[in-house]
Amino acid sequence: MFVRVDKDFNVSFEDTGDFKKFHIEVQHGQDALGKVSEALKAVAAVDDAEHGWVYESALREWEGMAGDQAFQDGFSDMLEKVKPHGWYDEERKAIQAHIEWAG
Fold first, then answer.
1. What are 48's strand-pairing partners?
2. Contact 93, 18 (CB under 8 A)
3. 49 near 32, Cβ under 8 Å?
4. In whole angstroms, what is the distance from residue 32 CA to residue 73 CA?
5. Which of 5, 17, 46, 98 has its CB 3.0 to 4.6 Å from that of 52, i.e. a possible disulfide?
6. Quick one: how far is CA 61 from the chain centroid?
7. Tell me, what's the pLDDT at 53?
């Protein structure tokens, strides 16, 4: 699964059944970091051009996901697997995601 920021800075949640390739995909170059951070502010905190912290609640409550028990269970399993690696921030209630830039 991944969070996408498209060329118009619209944010979407894609490939929600794949719990092994979590990331943020941006269809801009790193020079758009400020605009990307602004576009993602309700979904993730972007600390730098390499990583962001995606809020657990944003993904769990994304349109169509709240009532999808298979997603909720799979997401819970994923969180348990990443916590020992330090990829979950208990204070922010967010999961770390690397950022993939288009250009």
1. none
2. no
3. no
4. 34
5. 46
6. 13
7. 98
Residue among 90, 68, 82, 84 nearest 23 (CA): 82
Taken in order 94, 13, 49, 33, is the CA torsion positive or negative? Answer: negative
- Predicted confidence at residue 73, as pLDDT, reads 97
Longest dimension (CA), the chain: 38
Beta bridge partners of 45: 53
pTM of the model: 0.94
Do 78 and 59 touch, CB atoms closer than 8 A? no
Q: What is the mean pLDDT of each run of 10 residues along the chain (103 residues)?
A: 98 95 96 97 96 98 95 96 96 97 86
